[in-house]
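Subject: mismatched residue count in predicted assembly?

I count 564 residues in my input, but I want to confirm that the predicted structure covers every chain. Input:
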Amino acid sequence: MHYVVRMLQEKDTLVCNAMAIDINKIRAQFPILDSVIHGKPLAYFDNAATTHKPERVVNKVNEVYYTLNSNIHRGVHYLSNQATLAYEEARNKVQHFLNASQSYEVIFTSGATAAINLLATSFGDTYIEEDDEIIVSTMEHHSNIVPWQMMCKRKKAVLKVIPINEKGELDLEAFEAHLSDKTKLVAVTYVSNALGTENPIPEIIKRTHQNNSLIMVDASQAVQHLKVDVQELDVDFLVFSGHKIYGPTGTGALYGKEKYLNEMEPWQGGGEMIKSVTFEETTYNELPFKFEAGTPNIAGAIGLGEAIDFVSEVGIENIAEYEHELLTYATEKLNTIDGMRIFGTSEHKSSVISFLVKEIHPFDMGTMLDKMGLAVRTGHHCAQPIMDYFGIPGTLRASFAVYNTKEEIDRLVEGIAKVAMLFG
Amino acid sequence: MTIKEIQEEIVEEFTSFDEWMDKYAYLIELGNDLEPFDNQYRLDQNLLDGCQSKVWLHAWEEDGKIYYMGDSDAIIVKGIVALMIRALSGQTPDDILNNELSFVDEIGLKEHLSPTRSNGLVAMIKQMRLFALAFKAKQA
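Triage response: the counts match. Full output below for your records.
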């Protein structure tokens, strides 16, 4: 019920929060927003794919290479120590951002995909036996389907799928029916990247735990839009991508409860993750290093820390409020277009609108919008099962970030109407 | 007409458009006017799946010349398919293999043919040439 509470809180504080966002001040931190594309000012609506980076994040990454560059954790020399401190400080920032109880419960990865592959492999090797069951949902990104399919194939386990309804919401009755004493893990997304649906994650976690199963939440489309508190949620594992929350590409994290991270077998072997190596036996390093083989993306992780500072300073609640306003505004405006079909019509949505207009192919619409400087995504959004459910090849997707404006949305709506007219 | 002459003709048609919108409106028109694809050839083996859009291509030989039939689910892509067919259909395998499709670049559609665009067009051009190569091998 956490998300219901959030909606209510938002309503009560609408006025003061809307004022808390100084959009000009925010936009000034993203130089790329001043781009001119095909002679038109850029309006960027592909934020669910990746957000732009504020200047301070880019500067931070540069600063690491200019002033701090050194390999971490092993060195006795000054630069190595400084780099290690900065890297571990970034980990602390992620820890506080997610409200994890320990910093070593945060494993840096190259992104959410790598985090899920890590978990699928290590969890599978440690806990899964033949005929055990993993539950995912129809609305998962391919990254939260394929690693589990691969693991199930290896371990002869079974993958169960929670279906969705016509509003693009999880069918919770079907979820209940899937839960059994064979269920070892539930792996679901917080917010659908293709539909924008915000799932009732607190409720799903509660039910999963009542069933004595564990749960992983894919928060790739959540942490940048709403407050995520892993202790309050009592979630066992949670993953997110750095580049979708204003951080550098090639960054991300897996959060896991200490108990399970300690029990699980490591994923990749190599440097950093070992305590001692002989040809007879290798003992693994302690958390979090056990899961961070090889030299990590040092500058990237420190850049991610800076991105989290940016988000924290603007305030995640303020961001949620502002983006919710944008989403509501865009939904209303888009619905005025003749032949508009929005996919994902849940009352609980976050920052994503997926749509088609009449029978116009998304590629055609996307190509024409691009010519007007309007960047949207077209296709199946790496979520083919959703497209199959709706019986469509793909959609257009507009997704918002804190730097988008209502004026940009007006341009988008005008552009779509213009293209719709051209195609007749 | 030779492939070279057809390409020159296409380029001339497109130079009359000042606005990108007119250019794309014309592509849409070409797409709509493309001869319907014979459904008996709408087979998996004739499908070039480009992730973003699909292209179907069928080819046959008659009197030493190669003829193409094509389609796409995206109308802009279909317009470009129509241009490709106009340039290459009814030509000999040698001519198809020896001529570069320079018009694409000249009329500003190169962006749709970069290997990363995943709209099926790059695969289609490759397939058109492969057909020519196969028929040529058969003739020899």
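The domain at 57-312 of chain A is CATH 3.40.640.10 (Aspartate Aminotransferase; domain 2). Marking this ticket as 'not a bug'.
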